[in-house]
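Listing S7. Sequence submitted for prediction.
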Amino acid sequence: MSITALNTGINGINQGLSNLRRDASDIAQSINHNTEVSGVERPADVAASLVNLKLDVLQVQTSGKVVESVSTIIGSLLDVTA
């Protein structure tokens, strides 16, 4: 049995976590690059990655709420049919 809303929530969580890893890596690379190589700061790159990091967190939280809602609805349906 496939539940589309549940799959959408899980996919959203996975995508958000993947984006979190990417943005965290971008921040780490930018900071390491700035301190090791040229001393030239790239604050715009870090700022954009930090904003994206916050958006990724919100995506994971929102997708988690979708999964939680689907679980609640399924539980209610099972209670009604039992």
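Caption to Listing S7: primary sequence and predicted structure tokens for the chain studied. The chain is about 90% helix and 0% strand. The two ends are 19 Å apart (CA to CA).
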